[in-house]
Amino acid sequence: MRRTILTGDRPTGPLHLGHYAGSLATRVELQHSHATYVLIADLQALTDHADRPEEIRHNVMEVALDYLAVGIDPDIPAGFLVYPVSQAADITAFKAHVVPVGADQVPMIEQTSEIVRRFNRIYGSILVEPEALVPKISRLPGIDGRSKMSKSLGNAIFLSDLPDVVTDKVMRMYTDPRHARVEDPGEVEGNVVFTYLDAFDPDHAGLETLKQRYREGGVGDVTLKHHLIDVLHGLLAPIRARRQDLGRHPEQILRILKEGTERGRAVAQNTVSEARRAMHLDYHMLP
Ligand code: TRP
User: Which secondary-structure segment (H or E) carries 170?
Assistant: First the structure.
């Protein structure tokens, strides 16, 4: 039997490379080998954006466009849900085995596991204990190199950024300050440009050679950044093109969201019924 994935994002803005490194890429990779549920957590977004409901509504569309543009398939997996419940409920309702998320979400998944273990101990094995699936480079630093990539810190590269904007942001990236001249040996560890290359350069062997040459001296920061710009263009050009196409038909996106929500609701409703029965709280089933 195929294992189940459930994951999602709060719709607080369009998605960026940090989301891509943290979880989007994993979802696209695993979506056909797993029964996949992806949710846009609108109610959870209200917990810290309660004063801006219109913004959340608008960002549901932004996130949906990013999902489709990166290649999440709304047909073969169960579709996207705008499913307004909080995290442990999200995960358990779908009996997810695997939750692809960035490192910052691991405590949420652990808490969910604890809740599941306790529930199952008391009421019998009904719910599934989930496991977080965190990629190696899941906490992508922002272009300032300091903190995590985030929209609010203004250090993000968005999946929808135009090529010139991406180029400009990469050129502004922080590198090794002691690497002033091309001949100077450079520091690879902690160098944001290399962190991004580790996350996104598909040519692993080539990257190892580049690191070697950078350490020895002889590779300038501009050359290095041009390489990262090429890598990011390769990743983002098809995503950007799909997003532009999809954005011309918002009514189709809304239909995908609506159908996904309906399918998700049916799955969740099953689990809720099972859980209520196990808890002897299924009053509506009484004769
Ligand atoms: N908390 C996640 C975020 O901040 C969004 C989310 C809601 C989620 N429910 C989930 C992630 C269930 C994984 C599984 O982006």
Answer: helix 163-171
